């Protein structure tokens, strides 16, 4: 195994320092614009244009799991991840980009700015409050992402892992606290460019190392023949579980916040498909990088260590720092968005909605900033949950989200006979069923809990909506 500390040089530190200074400057510059109102802070006054939307969408949909997690999957599962996750996720997200996103922006009432607002609009207030579980559960995913930052900085530079996570977490809190969605929009565009350039440099480095793609695959077969097979280390139920988890983006609160921040539905129709094409190539590159890493360093202690050894072997100094910055950029983008969304939901939907209905707009803004600080401490402390790697983080958290919320969410958009009671019953049932199937029964017959809950929840949704019909349900259907 290579000595990372010997290869990590001054140029790499300079790249990282410039990145951190840059995002902090953005936070201070955008502070005044973000402080005008909660809507300005939370959805950037709904003024994001196509170039900014591409960057902010990519930075929220493709994070450090896309870099390290998919690389770990490539090293342990093989290229089958491209078939069962990357291709399905790209295809399955197209309706969100071309249809649901523009409808969310163009046809929703102005007060709908959070995911609970959306569920409340479709069904009722209790269902909206229950849907807040979705962004709250994402805080556990943020712990995994932040741990990836500490892990890589510790590995490549020798920095104490906890110190690295504290510094990164503090930076995320500061610029999110100061600038909200305005800061995220600008930094996401910068982060998107860093991620794209870094992935391209890595792909060139891998190609130069092996001489050709066929040479890399032949070398991989000698390590593990199943790494280059279409289904590889993957059972049928596991593959279906991965495909279903790709739908979790439909229940991702970040998606709807970005839709709400767009200047219009037409901008979404252009920006998001372009972003999906770039993101699919980026994701496939990371899987191939994982295959390359296990081929070059089969004796690595962990897949992550092998991946970073490969990165440092094929990239020159400076570019190594840029790639590490790409990982940190991906983390900061996703985590800052989750802080912003969860803070807004807890204050606007819970505190104002249940405790203090007369809370002013300025009070909601101040409260959201306070919760963002608390979430930063929580996520830093929660990183210990993912010390064994983050490859399964999105599969676990995303699987829960899509299992519980996908059916009532899509039903809210498209089912004419939806009802308030039907939506509420389905969400409650799905939470209980997921807990039963995953933790009590232990996923019998190898059927993933997400798949089981999705099927059972679909049946319950149609039955409950039929038994408890709303007279005005057709009026709320966005397609009518």
Give an overview of the whole structure.
- With 480 residues, the protein is an all-alpha fold.
- The protein has a single domain (4-392), classed as Sodium/glucose cotransporter.
- Helix content is 78%, strand content 0%.
- The protein has helices at 4-7, 10-29, 31-34, 38-43, 50-61, 64-76, 80-92, 94-107, 115-122, 125-130, 133-157, 161-210, 213-223, 236-245, 253-261, 265-296, 303-314, 319-355, 361-381, 393-414, 420-440, 449-467, 473-476.
- Mean pLDDT is 84; it is low at 473-480.
Secondary structure blueprint with pairings:
Elements: H1 4-7, H2 10-29, H3 31-34, H4 38-43, H5 50-61, H6 64-76, H7 80-92, H8 94-107, H9 115-122, H10 125-130, H11 133-157, H12 161-210, H13 213-223, H14 236-245, H15 253-261, H16 265-296, H17 303-314, H18 319-355, H19 361-381, H20 393-414, H21 420-440, H22 449-467, H23 473-476
């Amino acid at each position: 195994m290579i000595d990372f500390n010997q290869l990590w040089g001054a140029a790499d530190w300079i790249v990282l320092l410039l990145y951190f200074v840059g995002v902090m400057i953005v936070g201070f510059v955008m502070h005044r614009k973000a402080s005008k109102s909660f809507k300005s802070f939370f959805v950037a006054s709904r003024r994001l244009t196509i170039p900014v939307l591409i960057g902010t969408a990519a930075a929220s949909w493709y994070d450090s799991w896309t870099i390290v997690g998919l690389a770990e999957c490539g090293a342990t599962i093989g290229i089958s991840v491209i078939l069962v996750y990357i291709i399905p996720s790209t295809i399955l997200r197209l309706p969100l980009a071309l249809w649901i996103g523009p409808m969310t922006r163009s046809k929703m009432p102005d007060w709908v700015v959070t995911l609970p607002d959306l569920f409340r609009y479709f069904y009722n207030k209790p269902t909206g409050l229950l849907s807040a579980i979705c962004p709250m559960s994402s805080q556990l995913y943020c712990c995994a992402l932040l741990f990836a930052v500490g892990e890589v900085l510790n590995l490549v530079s020798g920095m104490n892992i906890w110190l690295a996570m504290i510094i990164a977490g503090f930076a995320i809190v500061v610029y999110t606290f100061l600038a909200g969605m305005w800061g995220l929009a600008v930094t996401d565009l910068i982060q998107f460019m860093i991620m794209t350039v870094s992935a391209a440099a890595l792909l060139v480095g891998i190609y130069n190392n092996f001489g050709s793609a066929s040479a890399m695959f032949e070398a991989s077969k000698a390590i593990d023949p199943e790494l280059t097979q279409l289904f590889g280390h993957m059972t049928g139920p596991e593959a279906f579980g991965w495909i279903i988890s790709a739908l979790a983006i439909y229940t991702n609160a970040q998606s709807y916040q970005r839709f709400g921040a767009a200047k219009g539905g037409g901008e979404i129709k252009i920006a998001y498909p372009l972003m999906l094409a770039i993101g699919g190539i980026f994701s496939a590159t990371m899987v191939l990088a994982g295959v390359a890493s296990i081929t070059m360093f089969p004796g690595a202690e962990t897949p992550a260590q092998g991946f970073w050894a490969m990165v440092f072997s094929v990239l020159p100094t400076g570019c190594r720092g840029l790639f590490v910055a790409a990982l940190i950029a991906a983390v900061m983008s996703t985590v800052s968005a989750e802080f912003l969304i969860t803070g807004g939901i807890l204050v606007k939907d819970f505190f104002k909605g249940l405790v203090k209905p007369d809370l002013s707009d300025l009070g909601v803004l101040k409260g959201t900033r306070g919760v963002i600080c608390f979430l930063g401490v929580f996520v830093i402390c929660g990183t210990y949950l993912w010390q064994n790697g983050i490859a399964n983080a999105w599969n676990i958290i995303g699987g829960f989200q899509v299992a519980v919320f996908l059916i009532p969410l899509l039903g809210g958009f498209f089912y004419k006979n939806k009802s308030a009671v039907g939506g509420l019953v389905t969400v409650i049932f799905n939470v209980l069923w997921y807990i039963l199937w995953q933790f009590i029964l232990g996923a019998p017959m190898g059927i993933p809990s997400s798949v089981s809950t999705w099927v059972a929840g679909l049946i319950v949704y149609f039955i409950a909506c039929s038994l408890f019909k709303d007279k005005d349900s057709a009026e709320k259907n966005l397609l009518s």
